Glutathione S-transferase (Trapa incisa), 466 residues
Amino acid sequence: MAGEGRVTLHGTWASPYSKRVELALKVKGIEYEYVEEDLMNKSSLLLQYNPVHKKIPILVHNGKPIVESMVILEYIEETWSDGPRLLPEDPYERAKIRFWATFLHQQVFEVLVLVLKTDGEAQAKAMEQLHEKLKLLEEGIKGSFPGGSPAVNGENMGLLDIVVCSYFGPYKVHEEVLGLKYLDSEKYPLVTSWVKSLVQYPAVKESTPPHEKSVALVRYFREKALQSPAGVL
Amino acid sequence: MAGEGRVTLHGTWASPYSKRVELALKVKGIEYEYVEEDLMNKSSLLLQYNPVHKKIPILVHNGKPIVESMVILEYIEETWSDGPRLLPEDPYERAKIRFWATFLHQQVFEVLVLVLKTDGEAQAKAMEQLHEKLKLLEEGIKGSFPGGSPAVNGENMGLLDIVVCSYFGPYKVHEEVLGLKYLDSEKYPLVTSWVKSLVQYPAVKESTPPHEKSVALVRYFREKALQSPAGVL
């Protein structure tokens, strides 16, 4: 099969972008080596593989690097095409999945990060934006996927499940650090039940870091951002 | 074939995002109806088809809307799969095309717009950023596509050609409004010759608005942005 050969993922354990590649590899059942990168001290391999963005995740397949998480997910789907599917067959169904994945990728995470790195009025404003996005997602999912979760089939997470899970999978971590709930099952019943079912998937469970470790990291970043005048996270 | 049926594109004549859908449809030889939208007075169809972003372009195929230009290009490629190809067969080659298309989509256009809507020191800074991006593109294209242009074949523009052309195709319009050159054949020989060959493609020529009309519009937006304290374009 086209997907034979050596596979290495360069990532960091807390990055949602690494997480989605990790989940895709697990859904497909692809064996891979994992290299944890230190972003404060980037390896020469990282800089060689991704000279444009100097970022993770990087998937290296038989010596060839692929970068940008969404590009990597498409590559995995196309290369290991005989494994479980990440995208449905039908072009229109694929377009819907890609649309919502792009929405999450381009619009939701930056607002979530803003909530995590601010307080007071700035946080209230960011939280309002997050709720607007969650409302759009709730209504959009209801309209776009009348059958419920957009998993490719009941057994396997698909591309959109993976992207949702990479951002909202750690919602309990976020909620503990913030001391407030944002994933509200009364306001967003579909999104909430979707995320709660995704975190029960074996691939997600086995790749989820210990809760306290994640809380400590998000708390550290939050405190650092709050102390910085520019709010850099 | 899967791509049969009625096709309508909702766009605006000066949008690079509409332009790329228009070019993809022309490359594939797909007949379509074009609806020019007035973004100051959005049609009820536009709002119905794209309630999340309320933006163009929107491709409507047999009554079903597809939005987001990059999602639409993938949809066109997959639906009219027996027409000329927009993407190569090999997953790694596809990943390279998608990587550079994402780079242009996410990083280059906003800098180009910044150059067009500022002057003085702010413009000098934006121009410096644009040159950094052009340098990355020049080096990246050299490394990624040793054969030269990433056109899928010599006859047909591919997805990356289309994205490049949607931004830099009107470089003469930008240069006239700015009164300066940015597409420098000495600094960026590959990118410059690539863009210059793309604007000669029949599909591009027949979809390029009259030069003076484009100059007038870009000049209008530039003047409006310079008059606005927030520099809104």
In short: The mean pLDDT of chain B is 92.
